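Let us work through a complete example step by step.
Step 1: write down the sequence.
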Amino acid sequence: MNKTMLKNTLFATLLLSTTHVTLANEAIFQVAVVKGTVGTADITKGEVELGIKKLTASESSKDFYDRKMNLCVAYLQSAQNNKSESACTEAIDSIESIKRQSSKVRYLTSLNYSNRGVARYKQNQLTAALKDFEFAVTIDENPITAGNLQKIRRLLPVTKVEKIAALSD
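Step 2: predict the structure and record it as tokens.
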């Protein structure tokens, strides 16, 4: 499949998809998966290992954005959560490669940064997590991204947030 056809197929998939919210990390943060795609039902039912198996089964299907986003969340909820950050980054790279930046693409991009923020938080990378949550809100401020940013700010001591802000200037 050529690159243009792949991008058009990917874009059509994004437009036809909706997000489903599930909870991760002891119900502190919300993460999003793409509803109606491979692995979603398994992930949302708590059958995470089965979802991962389906998502990684076919080499050709791994290139699609929706599967990368779902794999990111599946790894977050599994015993393999150390793989979640790289899966989230792959999903971000995949969605950012789309030239047409519609409101749906911006929304999904923001959700991916937020998902990666959760992955980084779980790895105790607090500065990186905060930056992802902040960036997610600048792309699209929706209930998931805004809520996650609010939660991390409540969890981090004020002095820690001020130091992070000073470092990012």
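Step 3: interpret the result. The beta strands are 19-24, 29-34.
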